[in-house]
């Protein structure tokens, strides 16, 4: 059992206690235990029991519960309170915008016990009658539920990637290597995945029979040429079945409908009955006599014209990343010291680290006061002389305040090598308001990079509305780089808008926004998203070498007159 699982148990226990109106002092202490456990640098399962009680923020009662969890895999207090709570009430905790206090009213006073009922009550305008539930709250609960229901069974790309090889290996074992091909939205690296798709060179009957393992997945749909299964974890598997034209089925299902139709219209003479020897469907592109189009680019028809003139550039790769841009240390809400972060980056063969802790308004994230910035800069200087030629750049993730200004005076802002400007507060706003804040921040000469442009969280928060073109135009005019935040739930700016940024010669920066060392690896997801937009390494700031990065900063400062 790892720290995250332990923290989850305490967090759930605390929320359920609040829902039941139990001892609020205890509930709070479990919530803060969950918060602290998640941030521990070591695993509790590897810590001697007597030392657990010595950890800051872990008292007698929490300590005993941690040991119970580690030894039995269960928490009796949690089990007991879950048994007293209807499942629908626990499910409500997964809906944005309703915390334990509101859920308690929904359950005890409105006598609603399922999400479906709650949605209905919203549509019936019933919530408004209760204290603490105004029209606005009701509307936002309704929207959150609709969002939640729509996204049931949809996963982040990263979540599917975690189980992908295991599933593929299993399929290759039961159907044989040459009969299994990965296809569809996962193959195209879409950011969220509804179904993990495979071409299986077998009949429906054989597939159904062979899928009867110890824990057979549920068969949701059976069609003439495909089957849909659902695994225990909720992930759906779609198999395109049949015993002929394997590679044609592969070609047909990798690309979007628009792409496939346009390709077949462009090259009517291709013999799709042939199968190649490779994992991909390159043979059809060879027959067409055009450049191979990577699956991630097969979204629309225009790419075919680009391939015809051999103009698809070499796409950026994860190995092109030379430095970490956008990271948080334990000076704000990160888990590791600056030195640990820097050394981990050196070990990965990277040349520099941009440390951008939170700014002072982000009090919940221990944002840096003016004095602490000075201290941190001294410390960075020390580390830099110790770690050279590796370099730590002095940066800050400055909150874009409600009026669009940055979080410090120009005096302080001028002490950073670069500034990342992001919105973290008052996310619920109209497009007009969002545009006012963003444009003002972009026009601030100290802004180097615009962080996670819309604030979206895939599958859980839509993000505030923006006019992408206007923002990109402003970034072009003010020499501001646009971040492609590589966290798998952000991937913000969305890849579909990058094309316009590249046309306007705006640089993209694939940034992991790492709050821990493991977070560095998220650049992988940023690179996959960037590939979909045909980004090359020259168009991405974080693939600049140290020398190129430094000269870019100098050049930009001159251009901005600071
Ligand atoms: Zn941020
Ligand atoms: Zn950040």
Q: So how many helices? A: 24
Q: Percent of residues in helical segments?
A: 40-55%
Count all strands and give the number.
14
**Termini Cα gap:** 51 Å
What shape does the CA trace take? Answer: globular
| Main sheet characteristics | 7 strands, parallel
Strands of the widest sheet, in order across it, are: 8-9-10-11-12-13-14
- Write down the overall mean pLDDT: 94
How big is the Rg?
26 Å
Instruction: Please identify the structural class as seen in this structure.
Output: alpha/beta
- Which molecules are bound in this entry? zinc ion
**Beta-strand percent range:** 5-15%
- Can you tell me the residue ranges where pLDDT is under 50 for at least 5 consecutive residues? none
Short description:
With 562 residues, the protein is α/β, with parallel strands linked by helices.
Structural description of this entry:
This protein is of the alpha/beta class and 562 residues long. Helix content is 44%, strand content 12%. It contains 24 helices and 14 strands. It has helices at 3-19, 24-38, 49-52, 60-72, 76-83, 87-92, 100-108, 115-123, 135-150, 157-175, 184-187, 204-210, 246-254, 257-266, 282-288, 302-308, 338-347, 370-387, 410-413, 431-443, 468-477, 498-503, 523-532, 546-560; strands at residues 155-156, 180-183, 192-193, 195-200, 218-222, 226-230, 236-240, 323-327, 352-358, 391-399, 418-422, 449-450, 481-485, 508-511. The strands form three sheets. Strands 8-9-10-11-12-13-14 form a seven-stranded parallel beta sheet. A five-stranded mixed beta sheet has the order 2-4-7-6-5, sandwiched between helices. Strand 12 (449-450), helix 21 (468-477) and strand 13 (481-485) form a beta-alpha-beta unit. Helix 1 (3-19) runs antiparallel to helix 2 and helix 8 crosses helix 9. The longest helix is centred in the first third of the chain and has 19 residues, at 157-175. The chain is globular and about 70 Å long. The two termini are 51 Å apart. The model has no long low-confidence stretch (mean pLDDT 94). The structure holds zinc ion (ZN) (2 copies).
């Amino acid at each position: 059992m790892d720290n995250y699982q332990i923290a989850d148990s305490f967090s759930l226990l605390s929320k359920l206690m609040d829902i039941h109106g139990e001892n609020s002092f205890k509930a709070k202490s479990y919530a803060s235990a969950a918060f602290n456990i998640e941030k521990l640098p070591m695993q509790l399962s590897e810590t001697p029991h007597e030392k657990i009680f010595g950890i800051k923020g872990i008292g007698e009662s929490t300590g005993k519960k941690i040991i119970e969890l580690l030894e039995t895999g269960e928490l009796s207090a949690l089990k007991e309170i879950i048994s007293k709570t209807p499942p629908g009430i626990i499910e409500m905790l997964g809906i944005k915008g309703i915390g334990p206090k509101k859920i308690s009213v929904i359950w005890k006073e409105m006598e609603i016990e399922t999400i479906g009922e709650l949605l209905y009550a919203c549509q019936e305008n019933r919530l408004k009658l209760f204290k603490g539930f105004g029209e606005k709250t009701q509307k936002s609960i309704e929207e959150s539920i609709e969002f939640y229901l729509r996204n049931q069974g949809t996963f982040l790309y990263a979540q599917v990637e975690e189980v992908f090889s295991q599933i593929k290996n299993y399929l290759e074992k039961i159907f044989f290597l040459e009969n299994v091909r990965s296809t569809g939205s996962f193959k195209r690296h879409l950011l969220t995945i509804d179904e993990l798709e495979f071409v299986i060179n077998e009949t429906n009957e054989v597939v159904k029979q062979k899928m009867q393992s110890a824990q057979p997945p549920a068969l949701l749909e059976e069609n003439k040429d495909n089957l849909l299964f659902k695994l225990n974890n909720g992930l759906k598997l779609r198999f395109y079945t049949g015993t002929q034209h394997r590679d044609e089925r592969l070609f047909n299902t990798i690309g979007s409908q628009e792409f496939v139709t346009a390709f077949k219209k462009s090259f009517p003479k291709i013999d799709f009955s042939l199968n190649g020897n490779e994992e991909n469907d390159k043979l059809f592109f060879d027959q067409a006599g055009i450049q191979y189009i990577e699956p991630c680019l097969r979204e629309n028809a225009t790419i075919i014209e680009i391939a015809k003139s051999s103009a698809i550039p070499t796409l950026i790769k994860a190995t092109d990343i030379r430095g970490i841009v956008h990271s948080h240390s334990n000076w704000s809400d990160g888990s590791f010291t600056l030195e640990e972060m820097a050394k981990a980056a050196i070990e990965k063969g990277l040349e520099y680290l941009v440390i951008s802790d939170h700014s002072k308004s982000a009090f919940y994230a221990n944002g840096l006061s003016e004095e602490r910035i000075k201290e941190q800069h001294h410390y960075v200087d020390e580390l830099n002389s110790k770690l050279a030629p590796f370099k730590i750049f002095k940066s800050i993730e400055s909150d874009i305040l409600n009026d669009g200004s940055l979080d410090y005076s120009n005096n302080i802002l001028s002490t950073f090598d670069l500034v990342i400007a992001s919105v973290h507060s008052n996310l619920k706003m109209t497009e007009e308001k969002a545009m006012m804040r963003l444009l003002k921040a972009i026009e601030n000469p100290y802004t180097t990079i615009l962080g996670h442009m819309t604030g979206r969280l895939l599958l859980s928060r839509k993000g505030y509305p923006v006019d992408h073109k206007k923002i990109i135009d402003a970034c072009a005019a003010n020499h501001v780089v646009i971040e492609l935040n590589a966290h798998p739930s952000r991937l913000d700016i969305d890849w579909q808008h990058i094309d316009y940024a590249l046309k306007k010669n705006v640089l993209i920066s694939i940034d992991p926004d790492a709050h821990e060392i493991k977070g560095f690896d998220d650049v992988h997801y940023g690179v996959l998203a960037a590939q979909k937009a045909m980004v090359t390494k020259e168009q991405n700031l974080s693939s600049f070498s140290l020398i190129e990065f430094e000269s870019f900063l100098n050049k930009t400062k001159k251009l901005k007159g600071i």
